[in-house]
Design brief:
Blueprint: H1 2-30, H2 33-65, H3 70-101, H4 105-114, H5 116-125, H6 127-146, H7 157-164, H8 172-187, H9 190-224, H10 232-253, H11 260-283, H12 286-289, H13 293-310, H14 318-346
Helix pairs in contact: 1-2, 1-11, 2-10, 2-11, 2-13, 2-14, 3-4, 3-5, 3-10, 3-11, 4-5, 6-8, 6-9, 6-10, 6-13, 8-9, 9-10, 13-14
Keywords: Membrane, Transmembrane, Transmembrane helix
Protein name: DUF475 domain-containing protein
Organism: Fertoeibacter niger
C-alpha cells in the first residue's frame, strides 16, 4: 500500500488542488453554492472520464518506455507529461478556435472566458476532422501491434492468430485503414466528404511519418551512441500517440461543460493519474507480470478507433467509450491472473 501511495502521491496532491480550483472557479462564475458544487462535480467527472479513457494509453506508454533509456524515460515523464497536460488539454482546444475562427490566441482565450457557447460551437464544428484523424492514427497503432511479425503471444487466440498470419504482407495495415476510410466515406454526406478524407489520410500519413522519423532518429543516435537507442524517436512517437488519445477526451468534455478552464482542470487531473500509472507499470514491470494486459489495451485502442470513425456519422456517448475500454482491460487482466495461477499450479 505504501509503495502504491509513492506512485500516486503527486496525483493525489494535484487532485486536491484541482478540485479546490473548481470550487473557486464555480463561485467566480456563478456566485451561488449550487453553481459552485456543479463545477466541482463536473471537474470530478471529467477527471474520472479522462482516467477511464486513457488507462490503455498508460499501458501502451509503459510498453514503449520499458525499452527506452532511463534518461529518455525521465524526459518523457517530465517534459512529455507537461506537453500532454498543457499542450493537448489547453493549447490544442485554443489552437482549434484560432484556426477555425481566424483569430489570435489571446482573442481565443477571451472567447473561452466570456463566450463559452460560441467557443464550444467552434470546437464542435472541428469534431469531424479530429475524429477522422484520430480514428485513422489509432487504428494504425492497434493493427501495427496485432500484425507484428514474430508475435507469438495471443489473448483472443482464435482471432489474433488468424490476424497474425497476414503480418508478412507488406502494407496490409495501411490497406485495412484505407478500406475503413472508404466505407465511411461512402456513408457520409457529400458536404463532409472532403474534410473527412483529408483528415483521415492526414492521420494515416502522420503515423507513417512518425514511424519513419523515429527509425531514422534512433538509427542515427545508435550509430553514435548505443546507449541512447529508443530515445528521441520513441519520445516523438509517444507524444503523437498521447495527442491522439487526448482527442476524444477533449471533445467529449464539451458534452459536460463549455468552460475551457474547468475542462483543463478536470482533464489535467486525469492526465496526472495516467502519468502515475505509467511510472508504476514501468518500474514494477506489471506488463511482464500480466501476460495479456497489453493485448487488452490494444483491443481497447482498436475499439476506440472504430468509435472515432463512427462519431463522424453519429454521436456516441463518452461513457460507452470509457466502459468498453475498461472492460477489455479488465477482462485481459482477469485472463492474465488465470494464466498465472494455472502456470503456478503446474509448477
Amino acid at each position: 500500500m505504501a509503495a502504491t501511495w509513492h506512485y500516486f502521491k503527486w496525483s493525489f496532491i494535484v487532485t486536491v488542488v484541482g478540485l479546490g480550483l473548481t470550487l473557486w472557479l464555480g463561485w467566480a462564475y456563478t456566485g451561488t453554492l449550487a453553481g459552485t458544487m456543479g463545477f466541482f462535480l463536473i471537474g470530478a467527472i471529467l477527471a474520472v472520464l479522462e482516467i477511464s479513457l486513457s488507462f490503455d494509453n498508460a499501458i501502451v506508454n509503459a510498453n514503449k518506455l520499458k525499452d527506452m533509456t532511463p534518461v529518455w524515460q525521465r524526459r518523457f515523464l517530465t517534459w512529455g507529461i507537461l506537453i500532454a497536460v498543457f499542450g493537448m488539454r489547453i493549447v490544442f482546444p485554443l489552437l482549434i478556435v484560432v484556426v477555425a475562427a481566424s483569430i489570435g490566441p489571446w482573442e481565443a482565450i477571451r472567447l473561452a472566458a466570456t463566450q463559452p457557447d460560441e467557443y464550444a460551437r467552434i470546437i464542435g464544428d472541428a469534431h469531424l476532422s479530429i475524429a477522422a484523424f484520430g480514428g485513422a492514427f489509432l487504428m494504425m497503432v492497434a493493427l501495427n501491434f496485432f500484425m507484428a511479425e514474430g508475435k507469438d503471444v495471443h489473448w483472443i487466440a482464435a482471432l489474433e492468430r488468424q490476424v497474425a498470419k497476414f503480418a508478412s504482407i507488406r502494407g496490409i495495415e495501411v490497406a485495412i485503414v484505407l478500406a475503413v476510410v472508404l466505407i465511411f466515406a461512402s456513408i457520409l454526406p457529400d458536404q463532409y466528404l472532403a474534410t473527412f478524407l483529408y483528415s483521415s489520410i492526414a492521420g494515416l500519413v502522420t503515423f507513417l511519418a512518425v514511424e519513419v522519423v523515429g527509425h531514422v532518429l534512433d538509427a542515427s543516435q545508435q550509430a553514435t551512441d548505443v546507449a541512447v537507442k529508443g530515445g528521441l524517436g520513441a519520445f516523438l512517437y509517444l507524444e503523437v500517440l498521447d495527442a491522439s488519445f487526448s482527442f476524444d477526451g477533449v471533445i467529449g468534455a464539451f458534452a459536460l461543460t463549455q468552460n475551457l478552464f474547468l475542462i483543463a482542470i478536470g482533464l489535467g487531473i486525469g492526465a496526472m493519474y495516467v502519468r502515475s500509472m505509467t511510472i508504476m507499470l514501468v518500474e514494477k514491470q506489471t506488463l511482464a507480470q500480466f501476460r495479456y494486459l497489453e493485448h487488452g489495451a490494444f483491443w481497447s485502442i482498436l475499439i476506440l478507433s472504430v468509435i472515432m470513425f463512427c462519431q463522424t456519422i453519429t454521436h456516441i456517448p463518452e461513457i460507452i467509450t470509457g466502459l468498453l475500454g475498461a472492460a477489455f482491460i479488465g477482462v485481459s487482466l482477469w485472463s492474465s491472473i488465470r494464466f498465472n495461477r494455472a502456470a503456478a499450479a503446474v509448477l
